[in-house]
TrEMBL record:
The lineage of its organism: Eukaryota, Metazoa, Ecdysozoa, Nematoda, Chromadorea. It comes from Plectus sambesii. InterPro entries: CEP104-like (IPR052607), CEP104_N (IPR048739). GO terms for cellular component: cilium. It comes from the Eukaryota. This is Centrosomal protein CEP104 N-terminal domain-containing protein. It holds the Pfam family CEP104_N. Residues 43-155 form the Centrosomal protein CEP104 N-terminal domain.
Length: 173
């Protein structure tokens, strides 16, 4: 069978999101609540000596078909693992989350910056909830913090976002 080009096939693109909630954070990284977690920005770092698991919740803004999630942990405050959950609910506090899988971060012998770890999924999600486990043991992490340098979400919107219709001046009366 010959390969054919399909124009209707949707490719996985980066899907924008907003960070909606973190269970704790260092004061210097408050920008995480309004911006995506990027390596060019501060990323996320938990407060000192937190309870585990820590939570990071992402708002996909619109319902998105997510096919891949890629997480780059902090170099010296690396968690042992992160469990990823998703929900289609309108409210992030709705209890209808389902587990997508666990990302496990291995120890690197030379302490080089960690590689991004992918989690391949196929789910519709409005919310992504990351349960961040306790840290790997490093002498430089006496306060038992955990951090994420970057989260990338790949997929596409289930339905393209449409802007609200323009307001008709006649309706203002």
């Amino acid at each position: 069978m010959a390969w054919t080009h399909r124009k209707d096939l949707k490719l996985a693109d980066p899907v924008p999101y907003k960070c909606a909630f973190v269970s704790s954070q260092v004061n210097t990284v408050e920008a995480v609540l309004t911006d995506s977690l990027k390596t060019s920005g501060p990323g996320w770092l938990s407060g000192p000596n937190p309870d585990f698991p820590q939570a990071v919740v992402l708002d996909m803004v619109y319902l998105a078909n997510v096919v891949k999630i890629q997480v780059t942990p902090h170099k010296t405050c690396r968690p042992e693992s992160i469990e990823v959950w998703s929900s289609r609910a309108e409210d992030r506090n709705d209890k209808k989350y389902k587990s997508l899988g666990v990302i496990v971060f291995k120890e690197t012998i030379d302490r080089r910056p960690p590689d991004p770890k992918p989690l391949f999924v196929d789910t519709l999600a409005k919310w992504l909830w990351f349960q961040v486990g306790p840290p790997k043991t490093y002498s430089t992490n006496a306060k038992q913090q955990v951090g994420i340098d970057e989260i990338q979400v790949f997929g596409y919107y289930d339905k393209p976002p449409t802007p609200p219709p323009p307001e008709d001046p006649k309706d203002r009366r």
